[in-house]
Each structure stands twice: as structure tokens, then as C-alpha cells.
């Protein structure tokens, strides 16, 4: 997947959860991605964050660093 | 083959059933008790006494015109018509007295005096109520001499058409009262010479279909059935070819052309339509192995005896010469196809798939099923992925239509399903239709809805287009909110704002049934003035006063129901809108009883079922996430494999991974992703990058241009199984003829699994359903014997609900307490600008179905031979575009050409087209943006520009050339 597309998709997820009151948005974002993103998509997201996470919403970066399950 | 025997009572009871206090009367000496309001005719029919009738039918209100059903009632004068006379306590009725017999005979004699007596050669021979009634009343003579009549074109006074033709001089029609047959409709003919002016067709068009296309013109002897206005024939009129008039006609006046050609059927099998999510039941009427006609089944609980042009007539694709009946393979997609044996094709496919997994890893291959396939087929295909490929790379076309429904309703209510049955619409007082066009997409439901609207229910339409429901015959929406595409969430949230700030909430319901903490958060969010209709008016384009009025009506207008379609789901915020809709129903207590609820109108016949069957890559059958070890264990124990705990690839992800080179093989059953999925160029690139694409379909569809293996499919007439419609109703699909390409689809999947090394041994789809029931709690009680007994059943069907569940969330929500979720509007990134100043939204029309693979191969093309671009006259004028001009439609994804249709049903700035024809390929325009939660594509919003054009684009020409190359087939080796 192109990095732009992946960034766009991840930021869309962040846009939803960061507007939810009284929740840990980063944890929710990570949970959603863990539930619905296939391992190679998560791997690409990990790599992108390690490479600086250009274009990613700060909540996504936090989610990846904190709660994203590393693909098996 | 074991035919399904049609259960007991298929008789026409004469007038509709009523509900009311019991009334006891005597008919011909027998006592009968019926509800108050029942007609004498129906009361007699209840105890098996048939009163002769011609203008009465139990799907139409009594009319009292034919005078054949007269009876005598003790203590009353004259001979009242039994169809229009309601029963009364203690009434004594005699249906056979010398007086009524004489009246009936006289009436029949008059009918016959103006009717051709070519019964032996008439297409209704054997199926003619006029003939039956002539027999029933004992008509033995017709004493009137020939005079003015409607049947004799020559004017020479003869009753036999052959004789008439012999006497007629050339084309000189000597009889000014004679009107020739109208054969303009491709499926049925109208022969005015045989009409007895019983009005049944006119009433069926009004009462059952709700189109009001037919009328009786003229008076007295000049009375004729007329479609449309002066100068119209059936095809040019408003007639939608639903077939209700044909079914209602007691003579050969309105007759299926297939019956004219083939004669009357000799047996029938009850089955389920393979088109939209309404899931109508039909009788497939057969003659040997040939299908003569499809007739809507009276006891079908979704359709209640009604049909649309697709289910009723558009089945000819099953015998279209384009059907591929031999398996085919090729090494590379630039080679022609080679016809081979099933064994060779399956081994070729299995070897390639195994090699790909060995080379690129376990997760390098996957499956896609169609929601046009049965539950049993989709279950087997996901089992192939999970149990044989050992990954979760399984998806279904529901991804691109209703996956946000799964997420949104799952999060708020706890399960992914519509809350009602279709009968519920009969109890509703306010209907809100959002992003759906039921008269085109779900026509039989639309007819039931319109019936309720004519009884006085109020309608709110939320749609950028002025769809037919906004204003059509005897239907007018109380409010039409013509929102700008992409602003659904803002509109739905603004409605909630009105309901909350004006105190229109159902507090008792919320306290008892919903999660209070989430409600408090939601109240705080939605009360904010930035969500008021006035604040969002410039964004949504919806006048604030109209939105406020609509919200008040929804909240306080009585039983309020929401029906929504893909105009809700196919957006970047599709899931958020579904959540917003669920919030609205909870706020106003409109959930958990008849007449209310949240109802996704599913696009295809088995969208609900394919989702139920675990076709999504993150969940096992019954919506259980693959991360849960206990759910996996059920299948691991049964199948003897280890289930991958990681979610698999969704359709768009598969294509992305293919372009990246990590996804290499695909088994695609019954789905044409190249035409139906967005951003055609990207889909094509993904398919072209794969090393083994297996297409299992009736036809060489567009996806097959990139395939290496083609496995011939079977039509719904050729296999057993079940479809689950939009109301969770599991209906049987019954095989009425042998599979034309040897195997039913479930057998092909099994053969492929076996070729890969699996040891599956199903011999009938009922065994697959038994496995589904044994492993899925909501299906625990489902089996074929139960379906035969009850006709159909709505899941959950288990110990707690042995006969199924018509209404959901009655006592409590599936998840316990209903959960409110905040719905912040986030604008889509697909925005208009100087290069692409217009918004394109897409949809479908009545006569065609999705990619058109089926309907384009029927005479339905008479109504819609090509995709058109609907554009507002102002937008057309500023670009110098006139009606019918070729225009180039371009977006950042691609461009195509099609012809323009100018209409003010579009708002300025918004254009619309359908995606039924591959030579237009509307999806070359749509983009790769998708719903944030589910990746459901944003088909409904694409920024475009339009300019005059004089022919196909280079892309269209290249595409057509590639398709022609890819479809070459070498003759089979001797």
C-alpha cells in the first residue's frame, strides 16, 4: 500500500477516536487497528513510525508506540 | 430430484383478510366464524365454498364490478355482491339459488358476447378464469347475435381469430373498435380484444405496486385498459413491468410472452429470487426441465405475493449463450483460454495455489465471495481460506456495501442486523429513508412502503437527489432534505441536536434500555450549538427549518422507522452515520417493537447471509472475532486445523498487497471486482500482479480478463441452498434444473478444496447448513426440514427462539444496554476544487442490477441500454452540454465518456450515474478513499469535471481491446 494511503487510513481512524470523550484515544486506535489490519499492514505502519511517522496524526504514533500488537 | 410440494392453501380467497372481533354467520347451511369486516365471499371461501367471481382477488380490495359473485341473504332484498358485502352476526347466506344462478348465467353470456371464442388456441388455455367461470355457471349458449365488438378486426362478425384473419382484406381493419395487441413490453403482451374490463390490472398497479400507470379509458362500451397517457404504449408509459397486472389478469389479455411461446407449466417449485436484499419468494413454474415463468409466491413472507421486473422476468441470463459451460485455464493472461476437463482445471488451480503459498508464504493467497452466493457456498469458501489455506484472507462484496452497518450496529446495539421484518412497515407512522432509493433498488419493499404512505404514514427523505419517493403518484414526502454528498453525519447529528435540545427524547426508554454514561456524554456533545441545523446549514445545504421539522416529525410522529442504503455506508464516515442513525432510534425509543427500528436495505440477495457466514477476514461465522481463542477452538476441533488468530486482508487490502507483490493468488466466486470495485485502474493493476486468479462465475466477467483459471458457475435455478435477506430471513433456494456445467457451486468449492488436499465429503447443502447450525449459536435451530415446514425463519433461531426472531432488541439490546456514541463530523478529503468542481454520486436503477452481468443479458436492456450521466441543467448549460451529448467525466483517478441526461432531480453541483455497463466503467472515476472503520469504498463522493466529448476515451478503447484479447477461447482439443 502506498505510504500516503496508509497514513490517510490511520489518520481517519484517529479522527474518530480522538473525538470520543473519556477514552484513551491512542489505546482505542491501537485496538481498532489490531482488530482490523492484517499483519503486513501493521508491519508497514510500524516501519513508517520507526522512520519518523511522516504525515501521521500524533495519536496514531502514540497508539503504535504504546499498544499496537507487533505482527507475528 | 425431490420437488418441494407447495403447502396447503394457495387458493384465492377473493378479498383480503381482515382483523376484528369474531362474527358468526351461516353460508349454505354451514356455520363459519370470521373477523369483523370480512366479506361474505371470503367467509364462504374459509369453509371451502367458492362463489364464482371475476373481478375479485384476495390481494386487492373488493370492487364489485363483475356481478358474478352475487348471493342471496335472508332478510335482505336483491342479490348483493358477496365481495363487497361485509359479514354480520347471524347472517344467513345462500350462494346457489335459482335466482343467483340465473343472474350469473346472464352476466357470463354478456361477457362472452364480446369475447373471442378461440379458446383452444388461446395462450391462457388451461389458466383462464373466464373459461373456468363459464364452466362454473353452466353457460351453454350465447344468444346475442354479433354486432359491435372489440375482438374482430375484420368487422365481419366472427368469434374465431383464424376465421377473422381469413376474412380480413389485407391490412384493412374494418372494425374501428378493434385495437391490435401491444407487444412493446419485452416480457408480456396486452391484447385488448380479450379484456373483460374487470379492473384487476388497474387495481393491482395501484394497490399492490403503487405506480398508477394503468387506467380504464373511455366509458361504457368504449372502456379499455390504458397504460400511460394518450400515445403511450406499455413500454413508454410509467409501467415498471413488475408483473402485478399480468398476475391479476383473469384472461389472456395480459399474458407472459414465455407462456405464449411455451404453453402452460406443469409443475412449480418454491424458491428465492437471486437479485436484491428483499429476498422475494417465487414459484418457478416448470415444464419438464424448462422454466416457463417465475410467479411471486403468495405465502412468501418478504414479498407477500408481489415482485419486480428483475425477479419476475429477468431470469433469461441463465440460458444466455454467453454462459461458459467448460472449465478453462491459461498460463498467462495474454494467452487465449483453453477448455479443459474439471479435473485438469482444478489440479492446475490447486498446484498453482500451493506453489504460491510455498514460495510467498501462507498469507499470499485468499478468497472473495459474492453476496449473490448462498449461505452454504459462502460458508464453504471462508472454510477454504481458514481451514485449507490456513489464513483469514476471506472477504465478500459486502465489504463494498454494508460493512459499516456491521461495525456501526455492532458497536451500538451489539449485532449486525436490521431490527425488523418487512411486515413492520405496515405499522409505521413515520418513515425516514436515508441514502436509499427503494423504488429502484428494493422495489417490492418500496411497494409495501408506498401502500403504507397512502394510508397516511409520513415520509422523510434524506438524499441529494429528488428520488421518485419524494413525489410520485399518491406519495409525497413531508420533508426532503437534499443534503450535499458527504455530509450525512452532520445532518443526522443535527437531527439529534433538535431532538435533544427541544426535549423530544424518550427518557423512559433511555433510562431503562440504554447505557447512562454514554448517554450523558452524547447529550453533552450533541447539545452543543455547533451541531444545530442553523450552524450546519451552509455545510450540508439543508434548510435549517426543514431539518428541524423533520426531526420533530421523526421524534414525535408515532412509530418511526429508518430505512437506509448505500448512500449512508459508502462514505469516509459510513460507519459514523450508521452509529448516528442508531443513536436517533435510541433517543426516541424507536426500537424493539413493530413499526419502528433501524433497517439496512441490503443491496444483494445474500449480503446479510454472507456476513453471517464469516466471510469477513476478521470474524468467524456468527460475528466472532478471530482473536478469540474460544471461538477459534470450535472450528479447530471440528476441522482439525489451527485457525490463524490474525485478521486477514480486506478486498482493498488484497489489491494493495498484490500491487506490493505479497498477495499472489485469488479464488473469486461470483463477484466481478474489476467492474464493481472503485478505482478500476488500481483493481486492474492488483489483478495483473497476481500469479493465479481463479474466477468462478456464470460468464467471462471483467475480472476474468485477468484470470488464469475459469470455473463455470451455476445459476440459482441449478442449486440448493439458502439466502438470508435484509430482515434476517433465511429462505430456501431450490434446485429446479440440473447444473448446466455439471456441478453446483458448492460442489466446485469442495472439489477445489479436495484438490488442495482437504477431505471434505458433503453430498448435499443441507449437511453444510447442519455444520453451520452446530457451530453458530444464532443458527442453532436452523435446518432444511424446519425451513420446509415454516417456509422461512429469521435468525436468531435457537432454543430460545425455535421459530426465529421477527423483531430484535425487544426486551433488551443484544449487547445489554444500548450504547450512545459521539458522532463528530469529519469532512471527507475528497473535495471539489478548480480542477474538479462537481461531486459525482453513483447508484443503480430499477431494471439493471449491479454490474449488470445478469440483467444486461436479459431484455431489461429495453429500459436501460447504457449508463447516463444525470446533470442539472445549469451545470450543463455553463459547459455547453445538451441532452444526449457525449461528455467526458474525469476525476483524479481516471476518465470515461458517457451521454448526458439533463434533469433537475439533481441539485446544481452534483452529478449522478449508474455502474451497470462495463463499457462506461463508472468506477474508473471513483477513488480509493474509504470508510474509516471498514474500508468500505467512498463510491458516493467523487470530485469530478465534465466537458463535451466526441467519443470514448483512450482508456475505454484500450480497455475494450484488452477485454477482447483476454476473452479469446481456443477450441477444445480433440
TrEMBL record, chain A:
Pfam families given in the database record: FdsD
Superkingdom of the organism of origin: Bacteria
Record InterPro entries: Formate_DH_dsu
Protein name per Swiss-Prot or TrEMBL: NAD-dependent formate dehydrogenase subunit delta
From TrEMBL, chain B:
Alphabetical keyword list: 2Fe-2S, 4Fe-4S, Iron, Iron-sulfur, Metal-binding, Oxidoreductase, Repeat
Domain called 2Fe-2S ferredoxin-type: residue spans: 21-99
Gene Ontology cellular component terms for the protein in this record: membrane; oxidoreductase complex
PANTHER family hit by this protein: FORMATE DEHYDROGENASE H, RESPIRATORY NITRATE REDUCTASE
Lineage: Bacteria, Pseudomonadati, Pseudomonadota, Alphaproteobacteria, Rhodobacterales
Family: Belongs to the complex I 75 kDa subunit family.
Record-linked SMART domains: Molybdop_Fe4S4, NADH-G_4Fe-4S_3
Source organism superkingdom: Bacteria
Chain ranges of the 4Fe-4S ferredoxin-type domain: 186-217, 230-259
PROSITE patterns: 2FE2S_FER_2, 4FE4S_FER_1, 4FE4S_FER_2, 4FE4S_HC3, 4FE4S_MOW_BIS_MGD, MOLYBDOPTERIN_PROK_3
UniProt-recorded name of the protein: Formate dehydrogenase subunit alpha
GO terms (BP aspect): formate metabolic process; respiratory electron transport chain
One Pfam family this sequence matches: NADH-G_4Fe-4S_3
Cited InterPro entries: 2Fe-2S_ferredoxin-like_sf (IPR036010), 2Fe-2S_ferredoxin-type (IPR001041), 4Fe4S_Fe-S-bd (IPR017896), 4Fe4S_Fe_S_CS (IPR017900), Asp_de-COase-like_dom_sf (IPR009010), Formate_Dh-H_N (IPR041924), Formate_DH_asu (IPR006478), MoPterin_dinucl-bd_dom (IPR006657)
Record domain 4Fe-4S Mo/W bis-MGD-type: where: 266-322
GO molecular function terms noted in the UniProt entry: 2 iron, 2 sulfur cluster binding; 4 iron, 4 sulfur cluster binding; formate dehydrogenase (NAD+) activity; metal ion binding; molybdopterin cofactor binding; NADH dehydrogenase activity
Keyword Acyltransferase: no
SUPFAM superfamilies referenced in this protein's UniProt entry, alphabetically: 2Fe-2S ferredoxin-like, 4Fe-4S ferredoxins, ADC-like, Formate dehydrogenase/DMSO reductase, domains 1-3
NCBIfam families (alphabetical): Fdh-alpha
UniProt domain 4Fe-4S His(Cys)3-ligated-type: residue ranges: 99-138
CDD domains the record matches: fer2 (cd00207), MopB_CT_Fdh-Nap-like (cd00508), MopB_Formate-Dh-H (cd02753)
Amino acid at each position: 500500500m502506498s505510504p500516503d494511503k496508509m497514513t490517510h487510513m490511520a489518520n481517519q481512524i484517529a479522527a474518530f477516536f480522538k473525538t470520543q470523550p473519556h477514552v484513551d484515544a491512542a489505546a482505542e486506535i491501537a485496538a481498532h487497528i489490531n482488530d482490523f489490519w492484517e499483519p503486513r499492514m501493521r508491519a508497514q505502519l510500524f516501519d513508517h513510525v520507526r522512520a519518523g511517522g511522516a504525515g501521521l496524526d500524533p495519536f496514531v504514533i502514540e497508539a503504535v508506540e504504546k499498544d499496537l500488537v507487533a505482527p507475528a | 430430484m425431490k420437488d418441494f410440494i407447495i403447502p396447503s392453501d394457495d387458493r384465492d380467497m377473493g378479498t383480503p383478510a381482515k382483523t376484528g372481533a369474531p362474527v358468526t354467520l351461516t353460508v349454505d347451511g354451514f356455520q363459519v366464524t370470521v373477523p369483523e369486516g370480512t366479506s361474505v365471499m371470503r367467509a364462504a371461501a374459509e369453509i371451502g365454498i367458492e362463489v364464482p367471481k371475476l373481478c375479485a382477488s384476495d390481494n386487492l380490495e373488493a370492487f364489485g364490478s363483475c356481478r358474478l359473485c352475487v348471493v342471496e341473504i335472508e332478510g335482505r332484498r336483491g342479490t348483493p355482491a358477496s365481495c363487497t358485502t361485509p359479514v354480520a352476526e347471524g347472517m344467513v347466506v345462500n350462494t346457489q339459488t335459482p335466482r343467483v344462478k340465473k343472474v350469473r348465467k346472464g352476466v357470463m353470456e354478456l361477457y362472452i358476447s364480446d369475447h373471442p371464442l378461440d379458446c383452444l388456441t388461446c395462450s391462457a388455455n388451461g389458466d383462464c378464469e373466464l373459461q373456468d367461470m363459464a364452466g362454473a355457471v353452466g353457460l351453454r349458449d350465447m344468444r346475442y347475435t354479433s354486432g359491435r365488438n372489440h375482438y374482430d378486426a375484420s368487422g365481419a362478425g366472427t368469434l374465431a381469430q383464424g376465421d377473422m384473419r381469413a376474412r380480413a382484406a389485407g391490412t384493412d381493419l374494418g372494425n374501428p373498435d378493434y385495437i391490435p395487441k401491444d407487444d412493446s413490453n419485452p416480457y408480456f403482451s396486452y391484447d385488448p380484444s380479450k379484456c373483460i374490463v374487470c379492473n384487476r390490472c388497474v387495481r393491482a398497479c395501484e394497490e399492490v405496486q403503487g405506480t398508477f400507470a394503468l387506467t380504464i379509458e373511455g366509458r361504457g362500451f368504449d372502456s379499455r385498459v390504458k397504460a400511460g397517457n394518450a400515445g403511450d404504449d406499455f413500454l413508454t408509459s410509467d409501467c415498471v413491468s413488475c408483473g402485478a397486472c399480468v398476475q391479476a389478469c383473469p384472461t389472456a389479455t395480459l399474458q407472459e410472452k414465455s407462456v405464449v411461446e411455451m404453453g402452460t407449466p406443469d409443475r412449480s417449485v418454491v424458491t428465492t429470487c437471486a437479485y436484491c436484499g428483499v429476498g422475494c419468494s417465487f414459484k418457478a413454474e416448470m415444464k419438464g426441465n424448462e422454466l416457463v415463468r417465475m410467479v411471486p409466491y403468495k405465502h412468501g413472507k418478504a414479498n407477500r405475493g408481489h415482485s419486480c421486473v428483475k425477479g419476475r422476468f429477468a431470469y433469461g441470463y441463465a440460458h444466455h449463450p454467453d454462459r461458459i459451460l467448460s472449465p478453462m485455464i491459461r498460463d498467462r493472461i495474454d494467452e487465449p483460454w483453453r477448455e479443459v476437463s474439471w479435473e485438469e482445471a482444478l489440479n492446475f488451480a490447486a498446484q498453482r495455489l500451493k506453489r504460491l503459498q510455498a514460495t510467498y508464504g501462507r498469507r499470499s493467497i485468499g478468497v472473495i465471495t459474492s453476496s449473490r452466493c448462498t449461505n452454504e457456498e459462502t460458508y464453504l469458501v471462508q472454510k477454504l481460506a481458514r481451514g485449507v489455506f490456513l489464513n483469514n484472507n476471506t472477504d465478500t462484496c459486502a465489504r463494498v456495501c454494508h460493512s459499516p452497518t456491521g461495525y456501526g450496529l455492532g458497536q451500538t446495539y451489539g449485532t449486525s442486523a436490521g431490527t425488523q421484518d418487512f411486515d413492520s412497515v405496515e405499522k409505521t407512522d413515520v418513515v425516514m429513508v436515508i441514502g436509499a432509493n427503494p423504488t429502484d433498488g428494493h422495489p417490492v419493499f418500496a411497494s409495501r412502503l408506498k401502500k403504507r404512505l397512502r394510508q397516511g404514514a409520513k415520509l422523510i427523505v434524506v438524499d441529494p437527489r429528488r428520488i421518485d419517493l419524494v413525489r410520485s403518484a399518491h406519495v409525497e414526502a413531508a420533508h426532503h432534505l437534499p443534503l450535499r454528498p458527504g455530509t450525512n453525519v452532520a445532518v443526522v447529528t443535527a437531527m439529534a441536536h433538535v431532538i435533544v435540545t427541544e426535549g423530544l427524547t424518550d427518557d423512559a426508554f433511555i433510562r431503562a434500555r440504554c447505557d447512562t454514561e454514554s448517554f450523558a456524554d452524547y447529550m453533552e456533545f450533541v447539545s452543543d450549538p455547533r451541531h444545530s441545523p442553523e450552524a450546519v446549514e451552509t455545510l450540508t445545504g439543508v434548510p435549517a427549518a426543514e431539518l428541524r421539522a423533520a426531526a420533530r416529525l421523526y421524534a414525535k410522529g408515532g412509530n418511526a422507522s429508518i430505512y437506509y442504503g448505500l448512500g449512508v455506508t459508502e462514505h469516509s464516515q459510513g460507519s459514523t452515520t450508521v452509529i448516528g442513525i442508531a443513536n436517533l432510534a435510541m433517543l426516541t425509543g424507536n426500537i424493539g417493537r413493530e413499526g419502528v427500528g433501524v433497517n439496512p436495505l441490503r443491496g444483494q440477495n445474500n449480503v446479510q447471509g454472507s456476513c453471517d457466514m464469516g466471510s469477513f477476514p476478521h470474524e468467524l461465522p456468527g460475528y466472532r472475532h478471530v482473536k478469540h481463542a474460544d471461538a477459534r477452538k470450535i472450528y479447530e476441533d471440528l476441522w482439525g486445523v489451527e485457525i490463524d488468530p490474525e485478521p486477514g486482508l480486506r478486498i482493498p487490502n488484497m489489491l494493495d498487497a498484490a500491487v506490493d507483490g505479497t498477495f499472489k493468488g485469488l479464488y473469486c466466486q461470483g463477484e466481478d471486482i474489476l467492474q464493481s470495485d472503485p478505482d478500476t485502474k488500481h483493481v486492474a493493476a492488483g489483478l495483473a500482479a497476481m500469479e493465479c486468479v481463479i474466477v468462478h462465475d456464470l460468464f467471462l466477467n471483467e475480472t476474468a480478463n485477468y484470470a488464469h483459471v475459469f470455473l463455470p458457475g451455476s445459476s440459482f435455478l441449478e442449486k440448493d441452498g439458502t439466502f438470508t435477506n435484509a430482515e434476517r430471513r433465511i429462505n430456501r433456494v431450490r434446485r429446479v434444473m440440473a447444473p448446466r456445467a455439471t456441478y453446483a457451486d458448492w460442489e466446485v468449492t469442495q472439489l477445489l478444496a479436495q484438490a488442495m488436499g482437504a477431505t471434505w465429503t458433503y453430498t448435499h447443502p443441507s449437511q453444510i447448513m447442519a455444520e453451520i447450525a452446530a457451530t453458530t449459536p444464532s443458527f442453532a435451530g436452523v435446518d432444511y426440514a424446519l425451513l420446509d415446514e415454516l417456509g422461512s425463519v429469521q435468525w436468531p433461531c435457537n432454543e430460545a427462539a425455535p421459530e426465529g426472531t421477527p423483531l430484535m432488541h425487544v426486551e433488551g439490546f443484544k449487547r445489554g444496554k444500548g450504547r450512545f456514541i459521539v458522532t463528530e463530523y469529519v469532512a471527507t478529503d475528497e473535495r471539489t476544487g478548480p480542477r474538479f468542481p462537481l461531486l459525482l454520486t453513483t447508484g443503480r436503477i430499477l431494471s439493471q442490477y449491479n454490474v449488470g452481468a445478469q440483467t444486461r443479458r436479459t431484455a431489461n436492456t429495453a429500459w436501460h441500454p447504457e449508463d447516463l450521466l444525470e446533470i442539472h441543467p445549469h451545470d450543463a448549460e455553463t459547459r455547453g452540454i445538451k441532452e444526449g451529448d457525449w461528455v467526458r467525466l474525469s476525476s483524479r483517478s481516471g476518465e470515461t465518456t458517457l451521454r448526458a441526461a439533463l434533469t433537475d432531480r439533481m441539485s446544481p453541483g452534483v452529478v449522478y450515474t449508474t455502474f451497470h455497463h462495463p463499457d462506461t466503467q463508472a468506477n474508473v472515476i471513483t477513488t480509493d478513499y474509504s470508510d474509516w472503520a471498514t474500508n468500505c469504498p467512498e463510491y458516493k463522493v467523487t470530485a469530478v469535471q465534465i466537458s463535451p466529448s466526441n467519443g470514448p476515451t483512450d482508456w475505454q478503447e484500450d480497455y475494450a481491446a484488452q477485454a477482447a484479447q483476454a476473452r479469446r477461447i481456443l477450441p477444445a482439443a480433440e
